[in-house]
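Moderator note: this is an archived Q&A kept for reference. The question asked for a predicted structure of one protein chain; the sequence and the answer are reproduced below.
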Amino acid sequence: MDQPAGRRRTLTAKSASSCHRRRSQVAGRWMAAERRREMSRASRPHLPMRPLWRCRRCGAEWPCQPARLALLVEYRADRTALLVYLSTLMAEAGAQLSQLNGHAAPEDLTRRFISWARAR
């Protein structure tokens, strides 16, 4: 705001302190919101978005690479259970994708769901 010449607004210690406090509060709220966003991104797992069978977090075909890694870690002691679980999900995905597409399920479902998890 333009002040007429000779009538400058002087910044007192009290008003400067108040201004600094408001800026600090705004900055603090912004940083807290940013931390919440980062934590929610970091804690959001790579899960399938049904019926599209794409990853909720990264949008890639599910199981995406991070989901595969998480599944391998979770089932590291029982590969057979992992393959049974993935086969069940593959059957579900095949049914849902064929309904969406109006024709048979995509042929690459075995590659997407099973091939990468086989014991080497």
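Archived answer notes: The first strand starts at residue 48 and ends at 49.
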